[in-house]
Fold this sequence. Notes:
alpha/beta, Rossmann fold, 2 domains
Amino acid sequence: MDNARRTTIGALPVVVDAHAVVLVEGASDRAALERLAVRQGRDLAAEGVAIVSIGGATNIRRFLERLGPHGADLVLAGLCDAGEERAFRRGLAGAGLGADLTRAEMESVGFYMCVDDLEDELIRALGPASVEAILGDEGDLASFRIFQKQPAQRDRSTQAQLRRFMGTRQGRKIHYASVLVDALELDHVPRPLDGVLSRV
C-alpha cells in the first residue's frame, strides 16, 4: 500500500475496504443514498462502496485530493446542492479531474447536482400532497400547519414551505431523507440520486 493511500485510510476509516466512494455534503444526503441503495437491492459495504459526508461543500477539494487520482485513486462520485456547484467544480479542478467543467462534464466524471437541494428533489418527485400525507403519518402535520401560518411562509408555495420545514428542527432532514426515499416509486427516483449511485 502506498503512502498516499495509507494517509487517506488513517484520516477516513470508513473507506478502509472501499474501492469506490460517494462524496456528499451532509448526513441527510448520506442517509438518502444509503436507503435508496437498500431499496435497489444493493449491499454497498459488500460491494466496497462507501458514502462519505464531507461536512460541507468547502471541504470537497481536500477529500478529492486524498481519495482521487493523486491520492488513494479510488472510483469517485459525488452529490451536492446547486448552490455549491462552484465549490465542487473548483475541487474537481484542483484534484486533477477536469478544469472548468460544465454540469454535463461533471456528471461524466460522476458528480451530480440537485436542482436546489436533496429535499427539493425528493419533494418534487413525490409531490407536495404525498409529502404532507407522510408528515401526517410521522406526526408532524400539525406542526407543519402552524409553520405555514408564519408571515414569512404565507406567500410561498407548498413545496417551498415543505422544503423549509425540513430544516426547522435538528435531525429532521436526516429523518425525512430516509422516510421520503422509502416512499419513492423506484422508477421515479430523482435523477441526481439515481445517477450518482449508478456510477459506483
